[in-house]
Amino acid sequence: MAIEWKGxxxxxxxxxxxxxxxxxxxxxxxxQAQIAAGIDGVILGGSLGEASVITTxxxxxxxxxxxxxxxxxxxxxxxxxxxxxxxxIRQAKLAAAWGAKGLMLLPxxxxxxxxxxxxxxxxxxxxxxxxxxxxxxxxxDYKVEVTLAIFDQLQAYxxxxxxxxxxxxxxxxxxxxxxxxxxxSLLCGVDTLAMEEMILGANxxxxxxxxxxxxxxxxxxxxxxAGRIAEALAIYRWFLPLLELDLHPKLVQxxxxxxQQAGLGSxxxxxxxxxxxxxERTRILKVIDSAIATRPVLPDYLSL
Length: 304
Known about the structure:
alpha/beta
């Protein structure tokens, strides 16, 4: 399956049981709800998927299960966030063997690579696989910026096709389009900037709160791209207090709690993360439950 890098790609959470094992039935329930809502692909093993605490064996289980569940309807994309180039290459080979149709690729973890090192890392992984790749550009959280100069070099690799744009500078969408035209598909990776970046020309949205609210997320994308801005904006304004949960260091706990309240997940996380307690949990629940109580009626966005 070739990937059309546009639309809504949830950064999927990893569901756990109370015994700290993978909860595949709950994972599958959410995934089917996402497909029914009209998502365009799913990303596994990212930051929101608690990648740093899941094993390679668990990643294999999740990827194979997701591939089976989607049954060819949408592509399964596996995230790679490794410290060593050799391990990133190994993970790319495993992803292909497990049935993933694409990769999301971060710069090297735990070492702040310079421009030359970052470019060579991406080139090495791209040269090792035929899978299409989306580069994750998030200098705020990961301290390495994928610059225009780096993307200029990456143009030579036909399987580097898309960018998860998380610089938190909406002007970067315009910079990328002005420099490269449509060479790279751009997907917003910051929930609170998604509509703004799509209006500026971004092709889609790698979402976090979509895990709990898939229909509303897809509706905003479809309405925006159809030019029905006022309708999209009304949903987006309702959504913003929820979307802001994506910006916090505890985004995993916050979004998993939202999934639980929406009936699509549970708040169980893997240590060292801990489920929310006390005033913090009460405060976040108020944001989530208030939004659910005022959930907008959506137009027939799937027909757009």
